[in-house]
Amino acid sequence: MTDSLILGLSSGSACLATCGMVMFPYLMAGSSGVKRIAVDLSLFLITRFVIYFILATLSWYFGQALFSNPVVRNIVPGILYIFFAVMLIWYSIGKNRSPNCPAKIVKTINNNRLVPILLGLINSLGFCPALFIILTKGATQGTLVQSYLAFLAFFIGSSIWFLPLPLAGKIRKKEVLKNIGILATGLAGIIFLIKGITNLIGGIING
Amino acid sequence: MDNTLKVAGMRKSFGKSLLFTLPMFLITFMFMTGGKPNFSDPASGLAMLTAFLLVNVLYFFMHYTGKTDRYRAVLFIIFALSLSYTLIHNMLEVRKSMSFSQADILECKIPFCHLVIPMMILPAAFTKSIIFPGSIISGFANISSMVVLWLVATLVLGRGFCSWGCFYGGWDDGFSRIRKRPVIKKISELWKWMPFAVLLMVVLSAALTMMPTYCSWICPFKAVTEFERVTSVESATKAGIFLSLFGGLVVALPVMTKKRTQCSFLCPLGAINSLSNKITPFTVKIDKDACNECFKCVGVCPLYALTTDDIKAGKVSLFCSKCGKCVDACSRNAIHYGIRGIPSGTMKNFSRNLFLFVSFLFMAIFSSGSIINTFHGLLKLIF
């Protein structure tokens, strides 16, 4: 669970730095008081939780079907980890990193109660390399419960950053936070790259 | 007064320099000899005398020539090399190998270094336990003495610790001085924040795993101190990481960029020390009236701590390690050591003298043991 939590924590900080300023006005639109903010934020987080729960289930079932052969089970996840980890590292250091948050799409939707749910949906299904990595992890777990735990750790790690969202407007050095978040995401990529390489070597040796 | 400073920099006369060296002379004498020089073993006596002379001659020249970094770097690099020698020598004597086994971990025989400190904080706060397998108060490089030394030095010097107290910084400082001109001239500003990202990752991972993850997986200086015995794919991967990071960030990149890249782009303790720069009494200040914006200081800064915008704004960034390279490069004395609360451009000599005394004394005392040890080892090797 530790590596899933670290992945969530590192990608969550970059996600907040990129999307926080976009999501904040929509989550808080028309809000009057702390209670409303808490309700909107809860809806947003619950939506993410439900999506991750579904993804944990789907990834595990697909993993059971695809990785039934023990040799494939050792080698393919290693290759996937390496591939997605390289993508994550590329995202953190690449100059062509998209500066825009996918949640900007909600600008086209009229402000209503659906907005926090839609934001939660877009945020959790925004297919970034970190999500691909956690999907791979979910697919390679021995039991469904382990897959749920991996996604739960990822959810907790990435959600912690959204809790102070109502205070996001007060953060002065947003660029610094964004830079640190992006670099931390790259470091999480390196962790999974190493994990992938050791998995692959272990798989080849044992296979 | 100001005109004289612009022409002569911080130079002093021979007699005045001797006078300024006298307190250093007496204090280092007391620390190195305990007040009773012992020449019963000629090799030990000669090693002590050499270290004592080295330290005091360098300090004298700092005052006599008015240059800081040139002489600081000599002691700083010797400190790094001698500490590695001392550590390796100690390892070989105690366990006949540079690598340590699981038994050494269980018996808490691993020497402590200050890079572990950021990782200790959360586990110590929540579980009242120390996650490093070292001795708390006894033995070589014990935890309590290293933490106290680092804390005192950081509160006084801020990130100055990285240029005056860190026993690893001398490695990439040394390699950054090999070439006359850099091969790689421009590196993205983004990378300056990497130590903070590393800090975030190692603090969290150490708290979650209750392991000093930086030491276990990342520290490049494992290559020149001690490391886990290679017995599995995992330990081989770790050894590969240590060697690659040492080769890349401590040797190759410093040579190519003329910058201290390990300190600038990796060290998590450097990130904490940078934050402490906000509260320490000593700073580096820019006298905007004297500055002609030649930006020589920006080019020579080994830690990417100065940008042209910083100079125009008249302030140095929190990454400054007070090494003195920019101060030496400025022919107009526009960038200078200062004391918090005293306006820039005033009391330049007083501030420099006070800072040099404190910082150099710390380095001299901290490094003397390992330097004497190394000279002693070399003398025994030669004779």
Descriptive report:
The complex is a heterodimer of chains A (207) and B (383). Chain A has seven helices and no strands. With 383 residues, chain B is mainly α. Chain B folds into three domains: 105 residues, no CATH class; 182 residues, no CATH class; 66 residues, Alpha-Beta Plaits. Helix content of chain B is 61%, strand content 4%. Chain B has 18 helices and four strands.
In a few lines, what is going on in this structure?
The complex is a heterodimer of chains A (207) and B (383). Chain A has 207 residues and is mainly alpha-helical. Chain A has seven helices and no strands.
β-strand number of chain B? 4
* Gyration radius over CA of chain A: 18 Å
Q: Which descriptor suits the 3D outline of chain B?
A: globular
Q: Portion of residues in helices of chain B?
A: 55-70%
Largest interface: A-B, 23 and 17 residues
- Rounded average pLDDT of chain A: 74
Largest beta-sheet details of chain B: 2 strands, parallel
Which structural class best describes the helix and strand composition of chain A? mainly alpha
Q: In angstroms, what separates the terminal alpha carbons of chain B? A: 53 Å
Strand order of the largest sheet of chain B: 1-2
Q: What value does the average pLDDT of chain B take?
A: 87
Radius of gyration of chain B: 21 Å
**What is the helical fraction of chain A, as a range of percent?**
over 70%
Shape of chain A: globular
Name the helix and strand elements of chain A from N-terminus to C-terminus, one letter apiece: HHHHHHH
Number of helices of chain B: 18
Low-pLDDT sequence parts of chain A: none
Q: What kind of oligomer do you see?
A: heterodimer
Task: Report the β-strand fraction of chain A as a percent range.
Answer: under 5%
